Amino acid sequence: MNAPDLRLPVDVPSTALFTDHYELTMLQAALRAGTAGRRSVFEVFTRRLPEGRRYGVVAGTGRVLDAVENFRFDEGVLGFLHERGVVDEPTLGCLSEYRFTGDIWGYPEGEVYFPGSPILRVEGSFAECVLLETVILSILNHDSAIAAAASRMSSAAGDRPLIEMGARRTHELAAVAASRAAYVGGFTSTSDLAAGFRYGIPTVGTSAHAFTLLHDTERDAFEAQVACLGTGTTLLVDTYDVAEAVRTAVEVAGPELGAVRIDSGDLLLVAHRVRQQLDELGAKRTRIVVTSDLDEYAIASLRAAPVDAYGVGTQLVTGSGHPTCSMVYKLVARAESTDPAAPLIPVAKKATGGKTSIGGRKWAARRLDEEGVAEAEVIGTGPVPAGLQDRQLLVELVKGGSVVAREPLDVVRDRHFEARDRLPLSATQLSRGEPVIPTEYV
Amino acid sequence: MNAPDLRLPVDVPSTALFTDHYELTMLQAALRAGTAGRRSVFEVFTRRLPEGRRYGVVAGTGRVLDAVENFRFDEGVLGFLHERGVVDEPTLGCLSEYRFTGDIWGYPEGEVYFPGSPILRVEGSFAECVLLETVILSILNHDSAIAAAASRMSSAAGDRPLIEMGARRTHELAAVAASRAAYVGGFTSTSDLAAGFRYGIPTVGTSAHAFTLLHDTERDAFEAQVACLGTGTTLLVDTYDVAEAVRTAVEVAGPELGAVRIDSGDLLLVAHRVRQQLDELGAKRTRIVVTSDLDEYAIASLRAAPVDAYGVGTQLVTGSGHPTCSMVYKLVARAESTDPAAPLIPVAKKATGGKTSIGGRKWAARRLDEEGVAEAEVIGTGPVPAGLQDRQLLVELVKGGSVVAREPLDVVRDRHFEARDRLPLSATQLSRGEPVIPTEYV
Q1: Which strand (E) or helix (H) includes residue A235?
Q2: A34 in any annotated domain
Q3: Residue B357 — pLDDT band, cuts 50, 70, 90?
Q4: Does residue A391 lie in a domain region?
Q5: How far is B282 from chain A (nearest CA, A)?
């Protein structure tokens, strides 16, 4: 695979190095012990939501599918593993032929989740499943954290558009995934060109303070921008004095000026003043964009302010206080032997002191009340009760090693809105609380 | 550039897309206004440290140099910008020839920093400098946040080794940069194979609970691991009952067992019990590795416990509560005209309500007291006082577009230890406080 095929801003010849050392040593030991071929079921789930959060958002599934497809050990990687003595020759031989041939089921991307939800289920030989732990968790833990924050922000923003502009606050490639996850959670556009290139997310932006400071006067800067980008552009009005800048902006662009951007100060107060001034100047349709250290609470507090769009950076890409999820990838069942017909045995860590989990391959369903509102996340290992058959959450993503469920990002985003809309109303309260529906095990 | 050249786990044909849309529209407007060629000075600095932190750690500089060198607009990128109408034809022409030809000075990587420290200074035409904002900030904000957390953890750990194992908790490529930054901050090794491949950081790891659960008994699993990885391996002892596992481990591997790993429970209590049990079993040299949700406070609280190494994941890769820094990239001076001889004029945003900055190209020096301990970060725009001439902090990194200051990661790591050692002792207190030395402007 190379960049043109995947439309990535970087080539990804292989995702096989996004792997923890111990996955390869486990493979080596299992190969030698004759247990590597035992059919195994791994599940991704989280024991809890981040403190105070009412629901989680599954994001990154599409990226997981890409990563699994491109998980190959090429010569460069094998040479490195050999040179550093990470694994022995028989294991290198096994890795050189590695290709995931199993099945993956999971919550569809954009769906909401709760503690215990089996977000992803990976089945195949122990050898092929164990190696995927790190790359799958990296993607889901990062992307779901960003999508959860984005979802809270988009609830708070209502119909007003949200611009993702956090690339400068996170790793340059994490930023691209963050834009994608933000879009899933309800954002409208991004400042990040790589996210536009890779995922087709609309990109926006006009100018920074540096552009005003480059010019001899603020008027010169506004004239240069309007001459080039048209009167529909967005002028940044807080480099010097806001009131003077707004006056100059309308003088330069006329009342058809597209928007002004405010990036500092008391946004509530300034937005009201600027709206009044714009109206008085006849620029009644000129929009106001605010972009200063916003989070979901600041967005909510500006609900009554004359604000037309929000730009969000730091708090979005850092998950608004929760930059990662606590998803884990656990072996929940494995065959008694390498015989393909051997039955699966549920397994689970049992030590006292926490981190226990429930063994067995799970199904999950969301039970709705009579009005169609979610009332419980039901998880079980036995047969699915008749009333929940058509409320099951897991869908087939990979079948016999082939991806069977690619979908456009807009479908994922719409699914998120739909899933969120079916939660009890208190789901979108920003205040801290328990998961909005309980998890029931049957 | 391709993967073998850069030894990256992914090919980076270009870093030019790690750019915010507005940098290109500013370029377009400046080209049209005839101001794009004005000589400009941009500086990276932060107005404050994360709340309660005593010092910051510069990390990512080496990655910035790679990014600047690979900042090129190839046909695929230009085609995208054209198709989406991001910029006009003359601007595309300018981008197609883009190559940074200016100068970059900065704090050497591993150095500590304080509010206002001019961590990086980028000089050249406005056109060439303005485009680098996002990629430079992405790298420095991410990597410095991780290095700062790592530095606090390595202070707390003293001589005991620290293993970075957070790949699963952050974006798969952010993880590679996080391993690098953790090493700069004092970590010893990583679980992440991509970090070993790219940066030569030692990789470690043996087994997870899944390996024990794969086998019919814990003894089977331990026997399989020891048969394959030798008695020097690390056995994970908390899948079922810890005391029983320790007994089995020593029976299987003998008293020469390398280490046991504890990944759950009350680590202080369990470590003491396990040490006592190992000693009683004659395994006096068997080490104890602990790896459960550690941060710098947990590491410090285990100082008196019989622990030989720490594995740190989530809290490391999320910056222990501060996953990003607040570094900004600001135009601080620019020429009056495009005449190469035109003098530079200091510029700065002046609006009320915060986010102001100090104009002018800056120098920085760290003043030491008579015992050689740092007592102030001194920053100025005029001539450097005689007494501070040889305490200056900025070094030349890029000269006329060519990188002149590549260095091995071990040099960077040693520099960090040295810089930290010169701070007042209270720098390494974990409790919240003010920056350990004041910033003085002259």
Answers
A1: strand A234-236
A2: yes
A3: confident
A4: no
A5: 25
